[in-house]
Give the backbone structure.
Amino acid sequence: MQPAPTQPSDPLRGGSRSARRRRAIDRAATWVVAAGGLAVVASLLGILLFVLGEALPLARPTRVAVSAPLSVPDASAPAVLDVYRSQVAALHADGVLRVRDLASAALLGEHALAAGPLEAVHSLPGDTAFSARTPAGEVLVLPFAWKLAYDGSQRLQTLEPGEPLRIAVGSAQDPIRVHAVARGPVTTVASLHASGALRVTQLRTRVNAFTNERSTATSVRERPAPSDVRELILDLNGRNLFGIRPTGELLWWRLDEPELKSPQRYPLGSPITAAALLAGGRSLVTGQQDGSLVVWSAMTRDGGPSELQAIHRLPGSGSAVAQIAAPGRGRTFLVRDAAGALALYHSTSQRELWRGASALDPPLALAGAPRGDGALLASAGAWQSLDIASPHPEVSLATLFGRVWYEDYAAPAFVWQSTGGTDAFEPKLSLTPLLLGTLKGTLYAVLLALPLGVLGALYTSQFVHARYQRLIKPAIELMASLPTVVLGFLAGLWLAPRIEQAFAGLLLAAVALPLASLAAGATWQALPRRLTQRCPEGSELALHLLLLPLAAALCAAGSEPFEALAFGGDFTSWLAQTTGLAYEQRNALVAGIAMGFAVIPIIFAISEDALSNVPRSLVAASLALGATRWQTTLRVVLPAASPGLLAAVMIGLGRAIGETMIVLMATGNTPLLDWSAFDGFRALSANIAVEIPEAPEGETLYRTLFASALLLFALTFALNTAAELVRERMRRRYSGA
């Protein structure tokens, strides 16, 4: 009896346990690889969305909420808001300071600061003090302070009057018509009298460190002034005095000079109807009858005398400007026109941030909050509070990428300077110097890395014996493992001073080393063929390795004689005298050499792979038809490998654009706007690394840094996209051929 035949197991149909296991492993591997790829894409997209989300609030519009009117007796008295916008202190003509709750207008307290009646009461810009004058010719400075206490989590705030200061500057026979006060280290009072005299009185108070005794020295300067000046404005330090004439002429006196001279005159054509100092006290904004607004700042041109310059002009509403209030922070100011309309402006960005209207008829007074987040609008018997949300008024496309005329600058300029020494500092956040610095560093790095990387890969893949290829390629790729912080450290502390000392030798080497390489090749070709044929293939490298170090040593030895012959013994002095350029030790040249050293391995590795992957059959066919090795390389290998070579160059460019540590340590990190190889620069990536630890979260600097990161991403994305499109076109062209 024959046994029944058995059916063989079919591994493809699951008949075997091992086949099922292999299929399970294949499916699991497929899912793991797919999940990993999707995770990478999701991570990159998440990073992009995060950066975009942090930068987008820069474009958030200004929002202003106007409260309903509250009935307040004599609400138009000059007032000061506290930092928290919870209380309002108003000084009335009877000399009583009344403190009210901002939200309810309830009276919280009264303080008699001076015996009335008082004239021309006004608050001092950027200060918690009032100024007034008496019919007897005295000017009063009435300071006060907000005192905070906490009962658990509840904030308790009280107002404490300070010691009044009485300054006799006039008399009943020569009354004061207009006055202004600046309270700083030196208290300055400018007063214009009925006699037509302008009198500047300054009080300097000194405190004895041992006895705490105070001594006051008073100085008075006087000269005639136009009798029709209707308003005087002193800056915060008492160094500049501005006068407003109804004819539309702005007067400027310099008070930091020993003698009080005649004012400089600036006619505007249209009568000036309002004026105020901006935050920091360095700029004056004037409003005119035709509704236009002009921002003035003092500056010096080419070492000449200081002059007042109109650095910004804003069109306004067309109705006469009635009042201007500048809050205590930034260069934002609030304007009320004769028709009762309100508008919020920023001087540096020259933008109208908001426009609205008030329900008060007519509004008579306007006061800004110390933080710039609110204001108070008052009439004879009511007030309204304004809640201002303007997080980034100084940022626009024009300020980020255009020329901006900043305070104390002689002309519009591209400037990055995020911080300063005082609270009055105006941040300057132009990305143009950083973008130029990024392109500048990339250019100098590519000038070194591109020829060495591509030509080195060409020689290694097409001309060097395979025995040497196995040594050269890993050695070059090993360069990529060097940390960039080490390269930047060596470039900044070791390479930079040596290049400065032997720059003439570097110039010699730039010429001598290529000539030495050509001489080595010519010498090898000139040797008898029977001799070269006995040498192992690739022995010509030995001749190059002998001549190139010798040429480098000769260039180093001849640096000083060549510098004396060509540059009069000192290259840096010759450069400054001949071209006007300064030589900075940490400059673009040093950074380009260090960045080129970091980029060469990437360009070399990708280029060598692209050249080596050209089918050997094409090379063999070209050689069989009688072409030389060099002709084959130029006419066959290079066109076939050109897509890969382009990819290598683009990836190298992207690597240079995103470099951080080398740029940070080898350039001086100065945001300059020039292409000189002997000056430093600041790149976008290095700027982010420097500034982000000190940038307050959510503030303008913080979000501007994220905007620069977005710009860096867009730059590399556009570069790689263009490269990919060109590479794909070249690939189709040469694959079809």
Q: What stands out?
A: The mean pLDDT is 87.
